[in-house]
Amino acid sequence: MLSRRAMLAGGLLGGLGLRAARADVPTIRLGSLPFGTSTWEAAVIKARGLDTANGFALDAVKLAGNDAARISFIGGQVDTIIGDLLWAARLGNDGQAVRFIPYSTSEGGVMVPGDSPVKSLKDLAGKRLGVAGGPLDKNWLLLRAQAKDAAGIDLEQAAEIAYGAPPLITLKLEQGALDAALTYWTYCARLKAKGYRQLVGAEDIMHALGVPGDVALIGYLFQDATVKEKPAAVAAFARASRAAKDMLASDPSTWQIVRPLMAAEDEATFEALKHDFLAGIPRRSTEEERADAEKLYAVMARLGGARLVGKGDALPPDLYYTGRNG
């Protein structure tokens, strides 16, 4: 039998070995916004041990806003953030290679009160239209293109446009200061729960512009250097992200992990957010995503010009992460 001293020594060495093993596990630092849906997915990954099961440790780093996220990403304080396809493409075309993992096809849309007389894009002429973001917001550019094609109007000239942050635009719509609002999908979902109606969704606009599938215009971004430095960890993160989405889609109990993070004040809001999140899970191959994204990029480059897309006239060739382009 082992002596007590030997057992204690063995236990100590075993503990040191365990800590050493844990120290060797690569970490992926995810920069997330306080109310961003990446916090939902991160919570599922941690609660269900999907990072450990895939051989990495997820460290969710809270950031104050989009500007802080971009600065932290470019500066290397975090390994990945949820980012815009156009911004990632611009970085790549300007010489800073970035890899894009599709995160969601849910974008947003134009919301109007349930009893609004606005029934079509043409009806927006002469109306007060709030636009979340600014003049170069991708959803706004797509909406302008569709309004010109389908209704023959230039919304920038035909409507009274007010730009602003999504919370402000949503509040102004609820207060009656706006007739319609183009805003992001989480705000659309909350408005639907209050009886507001979606006039047109970003997905509908994409289809009308000749894109057959739903395109993920937001995704996880990784710098090329990070992918090359820890390829196994990045691949493991991609697997864990997909597994978390699959759990949310197939196991309703998983939503109990997420619900405290959703700021859903009632059941209708919770169900609307849940429905639109699940509807946005990317289901297509990288090749299909890229082919349709190229079409949308051409539209947005034409409308936004160099101010929007920078030097490039196409998506960088290795923009989409495949596990083979690290």
Fold and architecture overview:
- InterPro entries: SsuA/THI5.
- This is Putative ABC transporter periplasmic solute-binding protein.
- Pfam families: NMT1 (PF09084).
- Residues 106-253 form the SsuA/THI5-like domain.
- The chain is α/β, with parallel strands linked by helices and 326 residues long.
- It has two domains: 27-105 and 215-304, D-Maltodextrin-Binding Protein, domain 2; 108-209, D-Maltodextrin-Binding Protein, domain 2, CATH 3.40.190.
- Helix content is 51%, strand content 17%.
- It contains 15 helices and ten strands.
- The chain has helices at residues 4-24, 38-47, 50-53, 66-75, 85-93, 138-151, 155-158, 166-175, 185-193, 202-208, 224-229, 231-250, 255-258, 267-279, 286-309; strands at 27-32, 57-62, 80-84, 98-104, 108-112, 128-132, 160-164, 180-184, 197-201, 218-223.
- The chain has a five-stranded mixed sheet with strand order 2-1-3-10-4, sandwiched between helices. The protein has a five-stranded mixed sheet with strand order 7-6-8-5-9.
- Helix 6 (138-151) packs across helix 10 (202-208).
Structural class: alpha/beta
N-to-C CA distance: 52 Å
Q: Could you describe the largest sheet, including whether it forms a barrel?
A: 5 strands, mixed
Number of strands: 10
Rough outline: globular
Mean pLDDT score: 90
Helix content: 40-55%
What is the subunit arrangement here? single chain
| Name of the level-1 CATH class of the largest domain | Alpha Beta
Q: What is the CA-based Rg, rounded?
A: 22 Å
Q: Name the CATH superfamily classification of the largest domain.
A: Periplasmic binding protein-like II
Order of strands across the biggest sheet? 2-1-3-10-4
Q: CATH architecture of the largest domain, please?
A: 3-Layer(aba) Sandwich
Total tally of structural domains: 2
CATH T-level topology of the largest domain: D-Maltodextrin-Binding Protein, domain 2
Low-confidence stretches: 1-21
Could you state the order of secondary-structure elements as H and E? Answer: HEHHEHEHEEEHHEHEHEHEHHHHH
Strand content: 15-25%
Pfam families: NMT1
InterPro entries: SsuA/THI5
Domain SsuA/THI5-like: 106-253
Protein name: Putative ABC transporter periplasmic solute-binding protein
